[in-house]
Amino acid sequence: MTAITLFGHSGVRIDRIAIDPGIFTNPAIMEGAEHVLLTHSHPDHCNLDIIHNLPVYGPKEAIEQLTDCDTHEVYPGDELELDGHHIRVVGGYHAVVHPSLNRPTNLGYLIDGRILHPGDEFPDIAMHSLNDIEILFLPVAAPWLKVSETVEFAHSILPRLSLPIHDAILSAEGKALVDSILTATKVPGYVRPDLLTAIEL
């Protein structure tokens, strides 16, 4: 049995693995966490005030900010075994916000071959063999994306469940609008679960 819990923005927990505990994420994500995965270095994905004294895996730009953790630099293609889960690292670079802005390394994490957290990009499906994904953490609002791109990515993956992430920049009305669009465009298995409530798989 695997417990998936959303803690706001891109912060999620897979059992005792915390992914992207950022400044817009409820700090409760760290309660009971034993490992941390970071997709990239931006503060909305890496809150230095709440990540302490744990093994942390991620790209160099992210982990080098942490001074009191057991840090591990990882790359696309790497494979990890954490908390009884097999994790394959995918990804490349952060999606383009504007050509004048730097694109840090962005890593996605494929967990047990069936759960995908892409961070701040839509990774190439063929390149990373992203097949048979059951649970997709789906970015829905960001300076780097359009809703049409979100819809197309979800339809290319065809997960059983699509769970929204990267949405702290939206008001309640904005979230409702995005939800209505993703539902109308038949994003596979789209549902917005309550935060801090575990989904058992």
Automatic annotation (TrEMBL):
InterPro entries assigned: RibonucZ/Hydroxyglut_hydro, UPF0173_UPF0282_UlaG_hydrolase
Pfam family name, one: Lactamase_B_3
SUPFAM superfamilies per the UniProt record, alphabetical: Metallo-hydrolase/oxidoreductase
Protein's recorded name: Metallo-beta-lactamase domain-containing protein
Upper taxonomic lineage: Bacteria, Bacillati, Actinomycetota, Actinomycetes, Mycobacteriales
